[in-house]
Amino acid sequence: MTPIMNPATPAAFCLSLVILSLAGLALALMARRARLWCAGRPVPVEWARGLRALPKRYLVDVHHVVGRDPYAARMHALAAGGLLGGSGLALLALIPALGGARLYWALIALAFAGALAGGVMVGRRRYPARPARLSGGRFQILPLLLTFYAAGGFLVAFDAALGGALPALAWPALALAIAGGLGLVLQIDRGPMRHAFAGAAHLVVHPRPGRFEGERATALAPLDLDAPRLGVATPADFAFNRLVGFDACIQCGRCETACPAFAAGQPLNPKRLIQDLAAALQPNATNATYKGSPYPNARAVAGIGGPDLPLVGAGAMIHPDTLWSCTTCRACVEECPMMIEHVDAIIDLRRHQTLELGALPAKASPPLMELRYADEPGGRALAARTDFAAGLTLPLILATGRADVLLWLGEGAYELRYGRTLRALVTLLQMAGVDFAVLGPEERDCGDLARRLGDEATFQRLAAENIATLARYSFSRILTADPHALHALRNEYRAFGGAYEVIHHTAFLDGLLAGGRLTVGALHEARVTYHDPCYLGRYNGEIDAPRRLLDRLGLARLEMERAGKRSMCCGGGGGAPVSDIEGERRIPDIRMAQAAATGAGIVAVACPQCSAMLDGVTGERPEVHDIAELVLMAVEAGSAKAARKDAAGKDVAGKDAARKDAARPPEPVA
Amino acid sequence: MSRLRRDPRMERAAHRIAGTPRPRFDLAAASAATSAATSAAPGRLRRDPRGEERLALVPGTPRRRLDRTQRVALAPAGAVPAAAMAETAPRLVVIAEPAYLVAVVPDAPGGRLTPHDRQVIGAARLLADAGGGAVLALVEMPGEDLAAAGVDRVLGLPVAGYDPEAKAALLHAVLDGLDIRHALLPESADGADLARRLAALTGEALFAGAESLTAKAITRAAQGRRIEQRRAPPRLITLAADASAPHGGAPHEAIPVVFALPTLAPGAILSAEFVPADPASVGLDEADFVVSAGNGVHDFTAFRALVAALNATPGASRMVCDAGLMPRAAQVGASGTVLDARCYFALGIAGAPQHLQGVARCEHVVAVNTDLHAAMIERAGLAIVADAQKVMPALIDALTGAGAAEAQP
Amino acid sequence: MKIAILFSAGRHAASGRPAPVPVELQAIRLARELIGQAAGDAAGDAAGDLSGDAPGVITGFHAGPDAGPLKDALGHGLSRLVQLSIGAQDDPLPSLAAALGAERFDLVLAGRSGQGGEDAGLLPYALARALGLPIVADACALAAGPQPGTLSLEQALPRGARRRLILRLPALITVHPAAPAPLPFAFAAMRRGMLETREGVPAPRAAGEVEERAYRARPKLIAKSAAGASATERLKAATEAASSGGRLLVDPSPEDAAREILAHLRQIGVLRH
Ligand SMILES: Cc1cc2nc3c(=O)[nH]c(=O)nc-3n(C[C@H](O)[C@H](O)[C@H](O)COP(=O)(O)OP(=O)(O)OC[C@H]3O[C@@H](n4cnc5c(N)ncnc54)[C@H](O)[C@@H]3O)c2cc1C
Ligand code: SF4
Ligand code: SF4
After folding, report:
1. Is A577 in the pocket of ligand 1 (CB under 6 A)?
2. What is the pLDDT of residue A6?
């Protein structure tokens, strides 16, 4: 070794060379893995846009998620920053002008010191006891490799910075760095380090780029029903950028802790699911290397796969019960620092099960059949949808052809429980003099259930027919109390040519109160906690209006530990109630316990599913009320108070008359 | 019996409802008796030589053969036990020389009429009494309850085992050989099958599943219950359950008639074995009587004993199935089984909407619950606000006690 | 084994829209399981997988102007559907008799009664007669019989009773709703299935003497009265039915409660001792 370049120390020079060769090895391993991604279906990707946006996506969007766990954020910044910084700088030290500068090596030493601190933090998290959500196996030796490499690098650089004052230390340190570095690089192929490069690639080719641009971007992508094979059967059926996404998983287990199905002991663990999907991409794959928490009450599977082998089935990687346990709540997606789209993957797999194999859970099939022939999952007459309003006048849009607000009733209208909510809403609309109408017998199911159960054919038919119906009428906005319908109408019909302004009843009522069109009295001393519906909060980002509205009612509002966009599902979405996959607990019981823990006497809900699920919880518990019901109570309390004020000094009969007057809905404004 | 004298006092007495302190009269009985009387009133019944000849025709033979001995078909065959009957029954209605026959083919499993059979006979009475006809029952096993049900004549159909095709062929022969204006069958599993076989054999139209019947008009549902079809009663009719009242008047003679039936070659059914319904193991969707436990039941040994004692099918709410106290297959409700049972007996079940969906089609609901405001109590026809743990043993005691008491005499 | 299944032009009970009749879809499953069993597979396996073709020949027949949603039967496991094109008012019997007579089927399955048309359920019987086949009603399970050319079947009787029959084939069998639920619908299987249209036999139906009007539900006449009840009992039952507000007993003694319950159960006839 001729020191032609006059490096600080021979050991430091060797470190640079080692890093260079490790980088070469890393690139080769990455290329090998990336070749597997090519098995996936090609999809158009805006590479330039993705590459340009990568730094922002990483530094802002990813760290926004990572930052929810401050320890992890610091740990990751130190480990990743130190590792990349130290290694990169050490590589540049091959440039003689830099490699000869002791100050430069001091900088490198600093970077490695950071990496070392990060490595120690990684270790502190995993030793002595590893939290259940973190994986073991290769992941458990990660802190060792990190500290070895960082410590080795630090010592070599430190020695170089001191001008070779510690030669006895430098060479063993170099060996340590080599050992650690080689270990880390080998982890690129099938270990934790894969997340670094796959994660970066995923940020570039992300299937929902809108997520980084302030959109919620939660609508499912339409499926081409003329495609030769529908949905995803094998890893190769996934779009290639989905495969990149699976490889990006760092097994942090954040999705696992957020998953309601996991909490209920159903056989679903989103982390394990993503790992199974990633593992199956390897030819002759097995699921044996996974060392995280299993699927709860896992159903037996062979655990084998390959790029062109089926993913789902007892003889494959994933048991069907795993797929059908998902409520499509997107809590996993919301929590995932690697921006992985679990729900899309689950729906892709379900589409194949449903459309190609007809392999649905026994109880999920009849509602889809009813939807095919009656446009209603319960097989009930469409005209019966307005039965809840017996005694109220419910204007049909058919009569006039137009209305300012089209009230979309949704499936809840058939349920006795939710009928009360809709009655309250209709009463409030009439009180406020809103010009509204309903489709009545022309309203078909929005198709949410069909779509989540993978029956894209039925969804697309319903969407097309609803869009055709809506096209016949003139209205400025669609109002609905059902967040699932809201999501379908607002976000998913767009791909089929239906663009509407859709507003949820909480936002609408908030507007009516803000505009003074309804006046409320305070519902004193009631302690209330608000349960965010997934399809309103997480899917559509609407978490403020319902809270504002509750505050206007003069309620003492308490927050559950999981609220807003990070709220926990009630268990009612994604067709989970009809799939009814056996677990240990019921999701709504868990959620209700969280609500009860706030000390609230009322759980305010804003969705027919939440209402049904939470009301199904037995025993001592807070009451369940839709916000519309609470608003009506407050309006009635207000008018009663106004009546009392008016009637002060008058006789009792007058008081009664005043109350009646106040309760009568004003004439609708034309 | 050449002429029948009317005795208004006797007739009135025959219509009187027994057991009421004030004299009350039953119209159905009245119509039966008066029509019997009016049919006889014109005095002599005309002979119908062509009809008699038709009756004497021996079916199933290539050449036309008459068997004059069969003339007895319209008259009592052998000694009439009328005297003996008159002693026990209020009064026996006798239709000596009917103008025509209305045939009924009751299911009569094991020779006993079912409620549906009685309704069909009631309907047949209506058609017969409208014109002085007689009701002829065609049964595999003549039972004792035919007279009270309103049957005038009985003809046995010798069918070995389960062979509906043979039975249909015999019926076909009877329909061809006797003056049968209408043939009525229950629209039950076996009756409906038989009627359609008969319709296919005779090539006649079948008025299937009649839902209302008078002598002039008969109706049925078609096109998925969107359309009601209506016409004068044709010859072949099946009657839906609970569409007509059973005969409520005085008993008729139910005397056997003789008719030479053809012998038939064996059919395609090689063997048949009847497996009676076992309430303990029958699927919930087919069960007739379901006894169900909810969260308010703690003693499942008693519950199971009660279900067995009631000879019912066990069910449960989701809470109970979730807790593993009953198998998942026992779950009643929206995400369990939707029942078609006649009676649902709910012990300690609150009656959540999803649970009530499962019992929406049950005609009778009995509920025991400690909570007066439980939705199940509201839904029940008989609601008992009490502790299920106390009621269950009392029920078992009452049932076993009743069994023992019955066994003694 | 060659199996034919008859499909009638059904309508959905609530929507009134054209729809397959559920028991006819159940027939597909019975047929697939029977063939799967004959092929030596575990019955469920062969029947449940809609990804491939049925392990045997199952042909559906429909006589009518348009197959419409009946082609969905192809998504429930049927591999081939033949539509015999006739006018809406034509009698399907001659078309079906001709088509089924031309091919020799070991087994013909049909629904118990159509849905949406005459609903009399006469067609399978008339067809069996025309084809010279024996007919058995209300099968809820099929299996290969003890000897070749025989079939063992379970006939569903009311309230869960069964009759086990052994039958010589060929035969026509109608299916009962107690048979296993239809295989779930698979859109792609429907896409793959073969739909064939042939000319049927025009057979105008003779105008009947029936008068038709909108359906009107009638109250059940005597639902309450027990078997062989006397007029008095019927009267009592009728008056009680009219005043069926429901009886409520609050805190009776357990013995009173038991007595009351048993009396009630006996009265409605579910308890027979
Ligand atoms: C999507 C969904 C689907 C569902 N599907 C179903 C379903 O298919 N079937 C189903 O059953 N549930 C279903 N549920 C659950 C349902 O909402 C209720 O939670 C459940 O039915 C309650 O069961 P329960 O009445 O046994 O329990 P509880 O609600 O706990 O009621 C127990 C009752 O027993 C009474 N009781 C207590 N002690 C006694 C005593 N000593 N003697 C007598 N009475 C006593 C109490 O007053 C109470 O009324 C579903 C829920 C959801 C959300
Ligand atoms: S999928 Fe995302 S949240 Fe879940 S373990 Fe992997 S990286 Fe973490
Ligand atoms: S969407 Fe919800 S239920 Fe489904 S895997 Fe993610 S967290 Fe679990």
Report:
1. yes
2. 60
Q: Tell whether B251 and B105 lie within a shared domain.
A: yes
What tokens appear for A126 in the block?
Answer: 């995993």
Domain A229-359 classification at class level: mainly alpha
Residue C240 at interface with chain B, using a CB cutoff of 8 Å: no
CATH code, residues A381-504: 3.40.50
**Atom 2 (ligand 3): residue with closest C-alpha?**
A329
β-pair partners for C204: C90
B289 and B375 share one domain:
yes
Q: Band of the pLDDT at B349, cuts 50, 70, 90? A: very high
- pLDDT digit string, tens, across residues A193-228: 999 999 999 999 999 999 999 899 999 999 999 999
Q: Which atom of ligand 2 is nearest to the CA of A253?
A: 5
Helix (H) / strand (E) element for A579: namely: helix A576-579
Task: Compute the distance between CA of residue C22 and CA of residue C76 in angstroms, rounded to an integer.
Answer: 11
Mean pLDDT in residue range C244-270: 88
Question: Closest Cα partner for A340 from A259, A245, A465, A446?
Answer: A245
Same domain, B141 and B233: yes
A411 within 8 A of A445, measured Cβ to Cβ: yes
- Residue B269: CB partners within 8 Å, gap ≥ 6? B161, B162, B163, B165, C134, C136, C165, C166, C167, C168
pLDDT at B83: 41
Name the residue type at position C33. E
Rounded CA gap, A662 and A253, in Å?
55
Counted domains in chain B:
3
B269 within some domain: no
- Across the range A269-287, mean pLDDT stands at 95
B42 pLDDT above the threshold of 60: no
Rounded Cα distance between A316 and A162, Å, is 58
pLDDT in tens, A392-433: 989 999 999 999 999 999 999 998 889 999 999 999 999 999
The reported pLDDT for the residue numbered C37 is 79
Q: In DSSP terms, which residues pair with B259 in a beta bridge?
A: none
Q: What would the pLDDT profile of C43-66 be if each residue is shown by its tens digit?
A: 444 444 554 444 567 999 999 999
| Residues B247 and B138 grouped into a single domain | yes
Q: Which residue in the set A415, A577, A586 is minimally distant from B322, CB to CB? A: A586
B288 interaction partners in chain C (CB closer than 8 Å): 159-160, 270
Whether B186 is in the pocket of ligand 1, judged by its Cβ within 6 Å, is: no
Q: Say what the pTM is.
A: 0.87
| Residue B92 placed within a domain | no
Phi, psi of A583 (to 5 degrees): -135, -155
Residue ranges of domains in chain A: 10-203, 229-359, 381-504, 527-631
Question: CA A509, CA A530: separation in Å to the nearest integer?
Answer: 16
Distance CA C96, CA C8 (A): 11
A251 Cα nearest atom in ligand 2: 5
Q: Kindly state whether residue B368 falls inside one of the protein's structural domains.
A: yes
pLDDT digits (tens, 9 = 90+) for A479-495: 999 999 999 999 999 99
- Name chain C's partners: 3 or more CB pairs within 8 A: A, B
Q: Is the CB of B371 under 6 A from ligand 1?
A: yes
Beta strands in C72-230 (DSSP E): 80-85, 107-111, 135-144, 150-156, 162-168, 171-175, 194-199, 211-214
Q: Read off the amino acid at residue B138.
A: L
CB contact under 8 A, B295 and A416: no
C39 phi/psi in degrees, rounded to 5: -80, 0
Out of A416, A578, A580, closest to residue B353 by CB: A416
pLDDT band at B303 (very low <50, low <70, confident <90, very high): very high
Domain carrying residue B108: 101-256
Question: From CA C256, how far away is CA C270, in angstroms rounded?
Answer: 20
Same domain for B298 and B366, yes or no, is yes
